Amino acid sequence: MLSQYEGSPPDPGNLEHNPRWQLAQRVAASKTFAGSQGLQAFLLYISERTLSGQGEQVKEQTIGMAVFHRKPDYDPGSDNIVRVRAGQLRQRLARYFETEGEAEPLIISIPKGAYVPVFEPRPAHQAAADLTAPAPAAPLPQASIDRAEFPARRVWPYWAAIGALAGLAFFFALRTPSVAGVPKLSKDTREVWAPMFEGRGDLLVVHGDLTYALWQDLAGRNLTLADYVGMKFLNYSPPELREMLNEVASRRYTSIADANLASKIPGLASSFGKQTRFRFARQLDVRDLSSGSVILVGSRRANPWVELFENRLQYIFGYDTETHRPYFQNRFPKPGESPILSRGSDPVRDTYADVAMFPHQGGKGSVLIIEGLSMEGTDAAGEFLLNPESCDLLAQRMRAELGGTGKPFEALLRLTPVAGASANARLVSLHALRTD
User: Fold this and answer.
1) Does residue 374 have a pLDDT over 80?
2) What is the pTM for the complete model shown?
């Protein structure tokens, strides 16, 4: 079996000749599910229980215990790992049946609000030429909206926001942004930033691709770096939205948070005797990241190059396409820590940001990742590192908890957005990162 879960699952030998069980095994073993043992285990568990006549066990509580190793008394109300992962599973299933599994006569779907899988024939009216369209169970609520009302409800507000950002393009036309107004660095701040300026070469700053994030929002998809390189994600456009989504993808805009950093990083670099180069995420090549120091601005949803380094991180960015809410997955939660950190639902709506600095594997220079659950979060994380007072505080915490500054670290920040800006960023967690 591909992935294991706790408990006593039904004997799969009883299902050996069941075409539905065979389908579930093919899907779990596919490239689409490669590298995600949690989703493999999730799919196999709910499929086995359902096909063995034990569908009553396919509930949030039992899934949390059997698949995600939660204790019997865990509270699903405060730990939403099953709901979050169910959304990811629905997305992964939709992708499989659109790509690798386009010839499958049966499809698997998981209705919203439930966890019991549904095995059903592929709709007979779906022509072979249209097999790239989403499967009926794919969580793409936008695609079900009538095309006549879609632009009025969703597209024009997005375009208005993007249009307001068009002026930011000048940041990419300038080779060396202004360095005026940069405060003198304290000893502590210099020690925190020093690893980014060791060795030869300029500092490379990679800005996020705002239109890539927008494309995913409109299409109801979570995409990967492999989808991004070479614009492969355009192949996943729902037919009824293809023209609009292609127009979105043709634009090149970045965010206010990226622009804010672009105005300040050159001054910081110059204080270390270094120059700064800026690159738009879509213009980057993996060879650009092979050596030298690089700053990746934005979460993987806007800057997919972050994905290359996520195996080094404790907090991994995710996005629930059903609730349209981003979150950080805490890969190694300590007792009392939540495995999922998302934006609060209270009026204050605190949110999170993550900052990580570590050396390149097998090369000179360092990597700095600055990502938030929102644009405000990314902006706050950048400000936290560039502000002398907060950076000095970080240096003090590093000496107390990590044994010194200049070491690989990951810092989780919590902040309160106010009127579209960030405020009250607090350092809530600090971890040492491995160097291998």
Assistant:
1) yes
2) 0.62
